[in-house]
Structure formats: structure tokens, C-alpha cells
Amino acid sequence: MSRTIMAFDFGTKSIGSAIGQEITGTASPLRAFKASDGIPNWDDIEKLIKEWQPNLIVVGLPTDLRGKDLETITPRARKFANRLHGRFGLPVELHDERLSTTEARSELFEMGGYKALSKGNVDCQSAVVILESWFEAQWG
């Protein structure tokens, strides 16, 4: 059975989201949520989860290029993942997101030039990159 997987690209000001199907290994951008110091409007997140009913949530884990935790953002991404699990009772996995923003920007630029590079688009495309990279890791 193919699972529906939702991904989040955590940021302190904006949190991007994407949805994908395990069977195809592809993901699509959903929307970016404004966050106040890393805290989203949980009602908005809940609406999205109710609408898509994912079987699993993947949260991008920001690390440095060597895979080490970043002092301020890494623990907050972990806390966000824990809160998702606690609030919605869904399994949540963390996935290394090194370079996802860079990759997202280059993909968006190829699709639509500078106009495509709005913050919300970049955050959602980062969530797509995180999810597709998570799919690749499952099949690796």
C-alpha cells in the first residue's frame, strides 16, 4: 500500500510544506506557513493535515555541511517535529536537509526565473527536495 507522506521545511519565520506519494517517490509543494519565532499557527497546520491525511510526516533537519547540529536551529526543528507528533499522533521522521534550500532555488530558477524565487516558493520547494531526498534514502 502506498503511503501519503507530508514534509515540512522548518524555519523560524516561515515553514514550507509538501506532499508526496511513496509509490511514485515524487512530491508537490503545498504552502508556506508564517511562523513567529519558529511557532506556526497550529490551526493552519491542522487543516492541512486533515485535508491530506498523511500516514507519515518528514521534517527537514538543518545541519552544517558535515552533518553536525547547528546551535540554534537544529534543536528547534527537533522540537517542531516532536510537537507535530504530540499534537497529531502521526509518526514523524527527521531527515537531513543539507543543501535543500540551494537545490530548491536552482530548481525554481530553472522553472520560472527570479519571479519564482519568492520566500514561500523557496520554502515549499525545499520541502519538496527534502521529501524526494527522503524517498531516495528509503530505496537506497
UniProtKB/TrEMBL annotation:
It is an enzyme of class 3 (hydrolase). Its main location: cytoplasm. The gene is ruvX. It comes from the Bacteria. Pfam families: RuvX. This is Putative pre-16S rRNA nuclease. Residues 3-104 form the YqgF/RNase H-like domain. SUPFAM superfamilies: Ribonuclease H-like. CDD domains: YqgF (cd16964). It comes from Vibrio japonicus. HAMAP family: Nuclease_YqgF. It is found in: Cytoplasm. Its EC number is 3.1.-.-. Could be a nuclease involved in processing of the 5'-end of pre-16S rRNA. Belongs to the YqgF HJR family. InterPro entries: RNaseH-like_sf (IPR012337), YqgF (IPR005227), YqgF/RNaseH-like_dom (IPR006641), YqgF/RNaseH-like_dom_sf (IPR037027). Keywords: Cytoplasm, Hydrolase, Nuclease, Ribosome biogenesis.
